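Repro:
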Amino acid sequence: MRDHPAWEFGDRSHQGKDGGGTRYGSLTPEWTGTSWNGHCVLVLPDSERFVDATVEQFDEIREIGMGPMVGKLALSIDGDGSMVEPGAQVVLQRGDLMLTYTVAGPEALASVVEHPEAIAHAEGHRRTGVNVASFTLAALRGEGVRGRAMQTPYPRLRALLRAVGDAPYEADESGDVRFGLPDHSGEERWLRLDEIPLPPSVPAAWPRA
């Protein structure tokens, strides 16, 4: 399995102990002007993890207050390259609620990434992802956490943790998170996560050439 994120799209419903339920999203997401109507999650193949970072946009889930949904996922590659077969369902527990995700097909992915609105803002989305990763890295170097993070089978994460050490970090005027570290020339600067020098043996970030 490759260690890069794969986006899968689908509908999502929840069911409470009383047997009632609510359905959100659609197996055929669409755009209304500049707004995309649908719900997406992140699949991490090598970790076999399913991450719904925006699950708390739904009132019932937000009231529980447990943050993003992360679950174990059995993965398989089907004929069209999808990492989760279209039509498959993923069922996860969150408090008293049972969440059922139904995976849409590859056309759902195309409806997002190939849309002019997504293309026009691709760099902004990438920078947002870098900032989220930066805050995550800062959290993973905390006392009682860093040791476990250094035991993970992800060489780039381990290299970044070693590189940032206990360096200070802050968000600049544009909202980009930067760490106070030496650059490639050895000069001390405020560097974004994707600007931090790493040894050449460290795997590149996705997408890789």
